[in-house]
Predict the structure.
Amino acid sequence: MSLVMSFTVKNLLPATICSIRSNFPSSIHKYSTGPSKTSSNVLDHLTDWETLSKNRKTSKAMKAYLERAKEHDEFMKRQHLEFNIGKRHLANMMGEDPETFTQKDVDRAIEYLFPSGIYDPAARPLMKPPEEVFPARKAAEFDEAGRPHHFLFYTGKPSFFKVLYDAAEHIQALNKFEDKVIRKKATPDPNGSLKLEGSVWLTKEQLEQSLVESIKEIEYENFKVVMERLVSSPYAYLCKDFIEKYRKPLAMQRFALEIPKPSYDEEGRAFITTYECLRKKARGEVTIRYPGSGKISINGKDITYFEDIQPREQVMFPLIFSGMQNSVDVECHIEGGGPSGQAGAIRWGIAWSLRSFVEKDMLEKMQVAGLLTRDHRRRERKKPGQPGARKKPTWKKR
Amino acid sequence: MRVPAIYFYYLYFLACLQLRLGLSYLRHYSTAPKPLQENSTEDVKLPVNPLEHPDYFQVHNLFTVKDLFDARVHYGHKEGSLNDYMRPYLYGSRLGHLIFDLDITAEHLRKALNFAAHIAYRGGIICFFNRNAMNSHKVERTAKECGEYAHTRFWRGGIFTNANYQFGAVTRLPDLCIFLNTQNNILNQHTAVRDSAKMLIPTIGIVDSNCNPNLITYPVPGNDDTPVAIELYCKLFKEAILRGKAERMKLLQEVN
Amino acid sequence: MASSRLERIGTILTRVEGLLTRGAMKPDDRPLWFDVYRAFPPFTEPKMAKPKPEIKPIRQILYQEDIIRAKFHSKGLGLGTTNILNPNSETHMKRLISQYQKLKSDGVPEEELIEKSAEIVDGERQRQENIKEPKYKNTVSPESVTTQVLAEADLKNIFSEK
């Protein structure tokens, strides 16, 4: 009974709606009632999968990708055209031959035509080929049927997890190898060893760059744990290639600058002059003579050139630190700035010149003590609306 | 306004007619009487519809109950952690440890293997899941060896439900998820179980006595922790998938 | 693809069927697994909201030998190592029980059964270990580090100061 009822209601309802809104397209009503009539038929008369698969070749994912690829190509083409026209205009403006106008000329022209005082070079006006300006598009990660190429695709970070997978694979292989060696009672290869002292694991940023994937801090920690475990195997040298892919040699760039050889004056004393000793607004040059007696002359005066104790200490510090206060003579010319700036400039100049007269150990100590580091700080400008660079006027709410 | 509607109807009618005719023709073609085919036409094989064969890929011969027993599939967890929905699959309790009825397990496993083989035959994407660190490498290797996919890592929310955004493009989702362990840890179910059900993806899952089998399409009651057991499951699923794929290759060659 | 994400309602099959019959999903766009599922439906419907199965007491699995096992365990004799990599290896308890039953059929009195069978099994195990040991000694290869070190070492005077 209920079945009959529902049937009649179903059939009646559309009719009533039809009569109420007669101007509405009738096809919609037909559509809404249509499936209920053939509801059982839809499921009984499905096309065979085999027949369907013959007709269907590309997946939706691939179709979408191809569409986007086409769009991107067209966009790049347009950009290229515009760039070339712009280049010709620029060449004409500069009065040069548009045919032989290179990218270097473009950069020069832009710099000339649009001079910019913006500090960050990335923010200055530029005109580059579109490939350099627009980010490269990712290649398709799946084939025509929509199947991803990488077996860890669904993890979202396939390359990173592939590294972990490979590491695990290597660890298992090494364990198996170790078992075999033990079972055979063979001796380990004395020549095989892994030298890791001179290198470190890639940092998180470097790893991300090499994998072209962003990874989380915890994932990087996991990476290090896995790699350390791999390295701890006594036969880790067997997968040296794999390990070294993820290591970077330690930077040996300390004292990369050549230490200058001292020249000799008419008295036969060795001397070194350091120019451009700067700190704050002070500029000057420092000459060190060896051997000497600890004489210091600053603009023709001795250490009393500085009236305060602090700048005097500053000047003496590198000499005392290296223990050379009695064996060298110091002569400097300094101008600009105040006493502390001048003292700082002289301090750096003395330390920089002393490099040629001290042992290597001392050099390293001086490096660690910060004597060989330049102080690039400058006075910060005053801001409008406030008394100083940072200072604000006193402010009270009420 | 009326004319297009009528026209549409006419087309619809025609399409229906064609569909029905084509289908009846196909049906007739594919449902050749079975005994005749199996007995008399050994050399001249008529194309069978794999769906009408009870075990087209012969997955029933992949394992025996003894194999399951040797791989310690029958061990469940302790009685206290039993999920009530797992009661029908139990054989009993040995001094507080639950024991699965391997006859039931074998039936379920055969069904699951058959389903996996069929999906592979149709070129579906199969994704393996496992959140047990001890077994995850094995699972990943299995996936690699049978040319399928694996996810044994931390599950970022929305990989299925928000796929087009997360992968940055329209993405085809797996057509079958195989869970070798349906729990995230001992307390929570893997989110992918729920997400697969949301996204209309069928699932096969090894459910231990502390798991909830309700959302798993083809649950297989059994031990999901022991490496030996996992190794057995991996071997079986790999073999089933490879059989499905081999048949697929044959089909593709026939078509071309 | 049109789909409903309400996993709590019905099963994936019923939801797809609903979409197909209502015309929201075209028959040709149906999921790949749909036909397979219909041909080989699972034993139970994968419904989220299912009534709980009838809760019957779980059957206890017990054996006749459990009494003997308990006797051994009460004396602290039942535990021993087992090689689980070898599927044919017998557990310590299994040996004890078979020994116990053998002795019982031989007519040994009830009080001595436990101790005697434990003694015999322990004896057997030690004998096996003794047989195995010399085997290992012979297989040491002459090139190995240990043999080289041993050959060079003056074992007798190893603690005497030079």
Notes: The first strand of chain A starts at residue 199 and ends at 201. Chain A touches chain B through 37 residues (CB under 8 Å). Residues 237 and 267 of chain A are 60 Å apart (CA to CA). Residues 1-38 of chain A form one domain.
